[in-house]
Request: fold
Amino acid sequence: MGNYIKKFAANSSFKLKDHPTDIRDEISKEDAKVELKELRKKIAALQDKMYADDRYSVLICLQGMDTSGKDSLIREVFKEINVRGVVVESFKTPTEIELQHDYLWRHEIKLPEKGKFTVFNRTHYENVLVTRVHPEYLLNERIPHITDPHNLPNDFWEMRFKQINNFEERLTQNGMIVLKFFLNVSKEEQKNRLLSRLEEEEKNWKFSPGDLKERALWDKYMECYNEAIKNTSKKHAPWYVIPSDSKPISRFIVAKIIYEVLAQYKDIKYPEMPEEIEEHKKKYKEQLEAE
Reply:
């Protein structure tokens, strides 16, 4: 399949309808599972080196419709990383404290420390997706001069895209590697996964009637995803559109892209031993062996 970065990246002429949700004719689920096992180890090794180097951090942004496989992807892709090196943050309905700040604040305070990975399970893009499908939610933000959410200024969403682009550019200019993944699942596959939540007892807890209300707005969500990705996929913080009708294949592709991107950073290295320790290394070794 060649270069995964290039194959799945969204560009300025992005159209969501041109991106497949299923590529099982190109790679099997079984092969994807085998490949993922090796990629997990390679990503963990890179993160360990990054932790020691202590200059870069990685922000992984996951977006997708309900049932697209975000939770299981996080579990399977990052399971080999030392627990000190990866943090997962999930963003649900904003709390009252979060609403006392601008919409990016709650994401800003959860960004990764140097040397670490942070995975955003749903992201700051909810603010140009869910709030665009349900503009009445904007009233909770108490933005000056916004009194009719269905009659917003003409440039409101373009303004938010610009704010998000500026936010992400500042992060990357200061050593953060930002990777954004849209898990592209078909409406038919979502239907099957929602049915499994109703039919399989161990999955019953996942089902909510609200899932069906949001599903009824599928076309509107796809339109908003198309606009968000097209306007915010930048060289410093690209979007990758991941075929997600098969969860094992989706996980493999995300892991492959993460590895390909990080492998390009040749300046991430283990630090050299300080000169004063190097000079006395033999003495320290003898001291330990003599115990």
Q: What stands out?
A: The radius of gyration is 22 Å. DSSP finds twelve helices and five strands in the chain. The mean pLDDT is 95. Residues 181 and 240 are 5 Å apart (CA to CA).
